[in-house]
Amino acid sequence: MKDLHNYTSALRDVGLDSTPVRIENGEYRWSNGQLEILNQPEFNGIRVNQLKISQTEDSVRDISGEILAYETPIRALEKEGEKLLEKDQDAINDQQIQIDHYKSLLNQLDRDMLIRGYIPPEESEQENLPPPEPPKNKKLSKVSLREIMGFLAIWVVGEVFMTYVQWNTLRDGKGIEDMIVRSISLGVVLFLIHLVGRMFKRDRRPVQLVFLVFSFIMLFIMLLAPLYLKEAYPLINETVQTTDQWALDSSAVPEVTDIADPYPFWVTFYRNNDMLPGIFVFLFFVIMQTFGRKPQKQAVADEVMPDKPVLPEFRPSEGKNQIEERRQYYQQQIAQGEQRLRKLSRRQSDAVAPNTERLQEILGELTTRQEKMISLKRQKDDLFARNDQLLRNLEMQLNRYRTEFMNVLKNDHVKAMVVQPEWPGRHDLMDYFNLY
Amino acid sequence: MLIDVTDENLFVEIESDLSDNLPVFMEKTGLAEISPCESFTLTLVPITAREGLDATSKTIAISRKGQSYQAERQQASPAPLVQLLKTQLTSYSGLTQDQSVTSGSNIANVMLKALTRSSPGSEITLIVFSDMIENNEYLNMYRNIPGEDQAEAVVNQLIDPVVMEAFKSRQQQGLDASILIVCKENQLTRVSTNTRDIRTFWSSLLNEIGLEHVQFVDNLSNINQ
Predict the structure, then answer these.
(1) What structural domains and CATH numbers belong to chain B?
(2) Which end of chain B has fewer CB atoms at under 10 Å, N or C?
(3) How do strand B56-61 and strand B39-47 relate by DSSP bridges?
(4) ipTM > 0.85 (yes/no)
């Protein structure tokens, strides 16, 4: 049926001079019969597929853009991670060097002892060794319990002694509560002097020196002022005797309660508020600690690492098996070092963990997009293949039409001499369907 | 402190004794020396011919423990008491001119009334400045000083039963007192009295009513510590 239809079309086209030709600008002009073939519904799919291909390409382009956009955060995270890794890496390296050093010392010791005929104990015996003590926090180890107790002892003795010495002087003008307050005030001053003295040895900040000078002045005022005031401005009724108090005709002895304050203002003020130096010192300390610049903190690694990888020397005790002690010492150092190393590694991993998590999230996103892109590309290839098949079918039909057209033209000798039809190639078909 | 104001000369002598010897007396006895949370009350009562008890009091106290010595001294200062004494002596001096006051004396009743007024739990010292000569409708010691054996009869006669009952009730509650009688011998009075008999009589009478700590002195400086 198709061949008949092609023949009819060709006959009509020849009769109507609808000849397929290529015009001047290279554009191909289809004959009516060819156009009928091209516009058959079965070939509409070519355009539809082409539209789908365009859409797929757009989607692929969008996804590529998204993938590229992830590049910046990935690089930033990578850099940050590298920095975090570098942060503890020196400490880890130092620790590793220390462990290697002790291992080599241990091996050397074993070799030396083997040469001398000493066989080291079995591993099982070594396992029975007590587990090495975990390294203490540096801050705690800095201030030992003994030191704290020593300070407290000095403080208590000083406090008791000072209070005892001044008791009689102060008790005259002060109640027990006032004495306790004053004693606490003195104790605070002593404590802060001791504390800041320690801090000054470590930090050497000028403000600490000023604080110490100020505190000592306040301390001396607290210690000496009551003694001075007692001599210079004795309390009036200290000297009044019972006999004078009961004298009926004695107008010279004033009533105690009616005595106007005969002391200078500052004497009365100090007597009533002699805890003030302690308060001043405390305030100074608070201000100094609140607003003063703190010395830069050492690297975090210092908290668990010695300041420098200086290896402590082994000191054997007398009267014991020195070789075994030395072995145990090396083993202990190795075990401690490995523990510290594990801790550092754990901290390193912990430090980069957030980055790793984020990177994994991004990787997941990228994988999803990549899979989507592959799927789209497959879809596109499929569409291309379908179009290719349709074009092949189309070419076959056009070829059939060509055969019929040439047969018809051959029978018409006049036209055959004038008309020279051009036959389309694949590119002409692609131009017709706007394929690219 | 009971002060006899029934005789002007006697009062002058009492006033002179107080003025001269009270400081020494207080120092020797330590009577008004108080510790934290303790108080001391001085009550002044004139001995007159009247029945009523005209008492005036002043208290000093150290309110709490743990105060400064200075504050304790201020609170324990006897100045308010001395002031009260001065004021009252001036007032009593005026009374000695009053005929209704000086027409007789009612020493035993006044003593018991004053004691009845005291708190049973407290430490009580009753100081009586007087010549200790009762002169009222029941007993006139200018004429006759009862003997030791008459003490019981005199008590029943001399002391108001109501007062005695109140006193006994107080005694049952634990009232006890030290009695110091500064027994003055009035040199200027026209009537001569036997001081020894007077002291014996009062000692018997006070023992009869249950007051055993009785001491007689002729002036404050002679007090035994």
Answers:
(1) 2-222 (3.40.50)
(2) C
(3) antiparallel
(4) no
Give the list of residues 6+ apart from residue A52 with CB closer than 8 angstroms, or none.
A379, A383
Name the nearest CA neighbour of B91 among B53, B127, B44. B44
DSSP A186-253: HHHHHHHHHHHHHHHHHH--HHHHHHHHHHHHHHHHHHHHHHHHHHHS--GGGS--HHHHT-TT--SS
The residues, any chain, with a CB within 8 Å of residue A407's CB and separated by 6 or more, are: A7, A10
CA–CA separation, B198 and B107 (whole Å): 13
- In the numeric block, the tokens 């241990």 are attached to A106
- pLDDT tens per residue across span B70-117: 888 888 888 899 999 999 999 998 888 888 878 888 888 889 999 988
Task: At B176, give phi and psi (nearest 5°).
Answer: -145, 145
**How distant is the Cα of B177 from the closest Cα of chain A, in angstroms?**
23
CA atoms within 13 A on the CB side of A358: 14
Chain A / chain B CB contacts < 8 angstroms: 67
Instruction: Tell me if A396 sits within 8 A of A121, measured CB to CB.
Output: no
What SS3 class is residue B145?
coil
Model-level pTM? 0.52
| CB proximity list for A57: less than 8 A, separation 6 or greater | A380
Token pair listed for A259: 């005595």
pLDDT of residue A136: 46
Q: Give tens-digit pLDDT for B137-194.
A: 888 888 888 888 888 888 888 888 898 999 989 888 888 889 999 988 766 554 556 7
Q: Please compute the mean of the pLDDT values over residues A16-28 and round it to a whole number.
A: 86
Interface contact A174, partner B, CB < 8 A:
yes
Q: How far is CA A417 from the centre of its chain?
A: 88
Closest residue of chain B to A256, computed from CA coordinates = B74
> A436 — contact with chain B (CB < 8 Å)?
no
Closest CA to A243 of B180, B24, B48: B24
Asked if A177's CB is within 8 angstroms of B23's CB, the reply is no
What is the number of helices (H) and of strands (E) in chain B? 8, 6
pLDDT digits (tens, 9 = 90+) for A276-312: 888 999 999 999 888 876 554 444 444 444 444 455 5
Amino acid identity, position A383: L
Write a three-state SS string for B175-186: CCEEEEEEECCC
Compute chain A's Rg from CA coordinates: 52
Long-range residue pairs from A268-274, CB within 8 A, at least 24 positions apart, any chain: A270/A225, A270/A229, A271/A173, A271/A229, A274/A182, A274/A185, A274/A222, A274/A225, A274/A226
A416, exposed or middle or buried, with CB in 10 Å at 0-12, 13-18, 19+? middle
Give the side-chain half-sphere CA count within 13 A for A221: 20
| Cβ contact A278:A186 at 8 Å | yes
Q: Which residue has the higher pLDDT, B112 or A133?
A: B112
Classify residue A122 by its DSSP letter.
P
H helix or E strand, kind and range, residue B214: strand B214-217
The size of chain A, in residues, is 436
Strands A21-22 and A28-29: antiparallel
Tokens of A233: 């401005």
With tokens 């006895």, the residue in question is B29
Contact B27 A246 (CB under 8 A): yes
DSSP codes, A290-334? HHSPPPPPPPGGGGTS-SS-PPPPP-PPTTS-HHHHHHHHHHHHH
How far is B20 from B43, CA to CA, in rounded Å? 20
Question: What is the distance in angstroms between the CA of the first residue and the CA of the last residue of chain A?
Answer: 33
- Mind telling me how many Å the CA of B112 is from chain A's nearest CA? 27
